[in-house]
Amino acid sequence: MKIYNTLTRQKEEFKPITEGEVKMYACGPTVYNYFHIGNARTFLVFDTIRRYFEYRGYKVNFIQNFTDIDDKMIKRANEEGVTVKDVAEKYIAEYYKDADGLKIQRATYNPRATEYMDEIIKFVKDLVDKGYAYAVDGDVYFDTTKFEEYGKLSHQSIEDLEAGARIDIDERKKNPMDFALWKAQKPGEPAWESPWGMGRPGWHIECSTMACNLLGETIDIHGGGADLVFPHHENEIAQSEARNEKPFANYWMHVAYLNVNNQKMSKSLNNFFTAREILEKYDAEVVRLFMLSGHYRNPINFSLDLLDQAKSALERMYNAIGNLEHVIEVAEDRELNGAEVELSNNLDKFRERYIEVMDDDFNTADGISVIFDLVREVNTNIKETSAKKLAEKALNLIRELGKPLGILEKTTKGNIDEEIERLIEERQKARKEKNFALADKIRDDLKAMGIILEDTPQGVRWKRM
User: Which of 159, 292, 443, 454 stands 20 to 30 A from 57 (CA)?
Assistant: First the structure.
């Protein structure tokens, strides 16, 4: 199995620290609002990576944190006239609702920053004691000049980073790139007692602390969205490796941006969608199929038209499942004949191809293509006259390959015939309205489902190919 490592900018063979186990940490949400579809892509990708590791036989210890103390959370609490804890509780519950809706499996553990305050304070104190951090008026900063490899994840020198960064001017800092490990309390803010006075942690320190406490000083995989490479993950590396004197993570993975209608998603452009808004219109498996149809390291464009295309593609897959479920009900329970033995052996090759492409840096786009090739093979060669065992093997294989992607897990029993009848009614209505283009499209869609229409004096009848 190969993984593209942001740190080395190349694909590397995956070698776990502990044989058969994966220790993986992915940065989770700051819980002050509903998460948007850009966040959803990152969450879905790491859910799929975790599922695929498990498919390949690994035991995965997967940690995803909740940032539950932060400037944005304090602002939201003040706006709503509630406590920061109230905001956190509300939006953690909303996160789970939407993540469950997207069929994202629960992490092994979802730690909260406020649960690890003692450990965070100790982490910061260790850095101060080792000379990597300094206190000023109750704030504590990490001295980036003391960590010689600062910039190695983003592949830039401190000088380059300074030139390109938006830096808050603070004359109390020794160097412009130094970042806050601990922030002194401001009036009305939640705070915790520390050696430097009442305050709260900086953003970056929480992930280093929780990853170290829950997974160890060196972990297998650390990941998040591409926007976290700098400064968040760069700073995590600096503070973790300065304190522990060993690599923080062996593999760094980052998910590329999601654009909306070829533009960056933003509230000002009014092209901002929450995951919940999309789930009100589309099934979770449609969203997953769309999000995973591009490689995670490539930006993808989001639009409702593209979601509709994903919906149609998923329907084709489920039509094959429906046809197989029908064959299993009516087919003869007999041994395979010579041609069926050959076809059965060919089916195994789809699993081999699927593993080959997914082992290559979790190439879900090619993995989905393999499933479509399998569906075509099944639609062409498995009929009501086929052996029941062959149809069962094909159905189990389609479901097996869909599971790591979080798709193709539902049954179509009782639904497929209703869907066909609904489409036929739509076609009849289109013909009456002389919308022949739509009528032809529906006929073609039905044909792709393996359904042949016959116009008879008694009306339209259908049969499976």
Answer: 292
Pairing of β 249-255 and β 219-225: parallel
Place of tokens 């609702």: 97
Name residue 387's beta-bridge partners: 332
Q: Which two tokens stand for residue 8?
A: 């080395």
Q: Are 278 and 320 in contact (CB under 8 A)?
A: no
Confidence of residue 417 (pLDDT cuts 50, 70, 90): low
The structure tokens listed for 313 are: 């593609």
Select from 240, 241, 252, 255 the least CA-distant residue to 294.
255
| Ramachandran bin of 333, using left for φ above 0, alpha for ψ from -120 to 50, beta for the remaining angles | beta
Mean pLDDT of the chain: 93
Measured from the Cβ of residue 391, the count of other Cβ atoms closer than 10 Å reads: 23
Query: Is the Cβ–Cβ distance between 45 and 39 less than 8 Å?
Result: no
CA 409 – CA 399 distance, rounded (Å): 6
> What DSSP string runs through 122-171?
HHHHHHHHTTSEEEETTEEEE-GGGSTTTTTTTT--HHHHHHHS-----T
- Enter the DSSP assignment of 191: -
Cβ contacts of 115 within 8 Å, gap of 6 or more: none
Q: Which residues pair with 462 in a beta bridge?
A: 453
In this predicted structure, what is the pLDDT of residue 464?
65
DSSP character at residue 138: T
Residue 382 carries which DSSP code? -
133-136 and 139-142 beta bridge pairing: antiparallel
End-to-end Cα, the chain, rounded Å: 40
Least confident of 12-16, 113-117, 459-463: 459-463
Residue type for 120, please?
I
Lowest mean pLDDT among 154-158, 204-208, 340-344: 154-158
Confirm if 195 and 134 have CB atoms less than 8 A apart: no
- Residue 23: pLDDT over 70: yes
3-state DSSP call for residue 143?
Answer: coil
Residue 168 pLDDT:
62
pLDDT value, residue 444: 84
CA nearest to 275, candidates 263, 294, 258: 258
DSSP letter at 122?
H
**Mean of the pLDDT values across residues 251-280?**
87
317 within 8 A of 292, measured Cβ to Cβ: no
- Please compute the mean of the pLDDT values over residues 126-135 and round it to a whole number: 98
pLDDT greater than 90 at residue 419: no
**Is 246 buried (19+), middle (13-18) or exposed (0-12) by CB count in 10 A?**
exposed
Question: How big is the chain by its Cα radius of gyration, in Å?
Answer: 27
DSSP 70: S
Backbone phi, psi, residue 180, to 5°: -75, 130
| pTM of the predicted model as reported, rounded to 2 decimal places | 0.88
